[in-house]
Design brief:
The complex is a heterodimer of chains A (about 150) and B (about 140). Chain A has about 150 residues and is mainly α. Chain A contains eight helices and no strands. Chain A is globular. The chains are: A mainly alpha (about 150), B mainly alpha (about 140). At the A-B interface, helix 2, helix 3, helix 7 and helix 8 of A face helix 2, helix 6 and helix 7 of B.
Chain lengths: ~150, ~140
Amino acid sequence: MVEWTAEERAAIQGVFNKLDYESVGRESLTRCLVVYPWTRRYFGGFGNLFNAEAIMANPKVAAHGIVVLQGLEKALKNMDDIKNTYASLSEFHSVKLQVDPVNFQLLSDCLTVVIATRLRTEFTPDVQAAWQKFLAVVVSALSRQYH
Amino acid sequence: MSLSAKDKLAVKTFFDKVASKAEDIGSEALARTLFVYPQTKTYFSHWADLSPGSPQVKKHGLTVMNGVLSAVGMMDDLKGGLLTLSELHAFMLRIDPANFKIINHNLLVVLSLMFPEDFTAEVHVSVDKFLAQVSLSLSEKYR
């Protein structure tokens, strides 16, 4: 069981309160596809992903960015049992989507970078630590059902 | 994943712009490395104060950032240019190369919070590639 201090819970909730899912979701996924271009392999049906401008303007990327953040919100709402909350999502990523779990960390890192651009000095070292701990738990839970 | 001409230009342009803030960037990135990844503190047991504002963190942050900035000028031969620094890290400091990824990540976080408009996705990919190449070159003499 993951232990969360009151400060960590507040920090993570604080980050979520400031997140515009549409903007942050789109930019995080865009950065992932631009910074780690091999991740485009999972988005064959998304149309034009040939360059940063195209990706940023792509409506499917925008829609999917929101889906990802809504998924993270589920973890926020079930912080004391992310592992079980994500069991079927993990199975889905493994069996249906067949995503290499390494990619969860890549997207996490891009999300962190985007949040830093939004929160700026509010993204203090403590907030960063709490946020990254949260993402680490999410990544672990998502990777759990792979076999 | 070597640096294209486009990458080198993006890296040079961006770092020329932010170079004046070297101490802020370096010390903040180092502070976050020590704080968010506490296992990195094991390399600094000889420091009295490992907290974010400490004079040692500030001074060393600047040293690290100056290293990064000098690497910007060596992009045509990073391995050659960083040979001495690689020997330092390999034989004297003996920092596990896994930690290079950690400080690189924190450099990216600090660059994005300090320069959100300039640190676009395209700059991000070039800087990430550059830092990865720097890490590789720093690891050269390890074994």
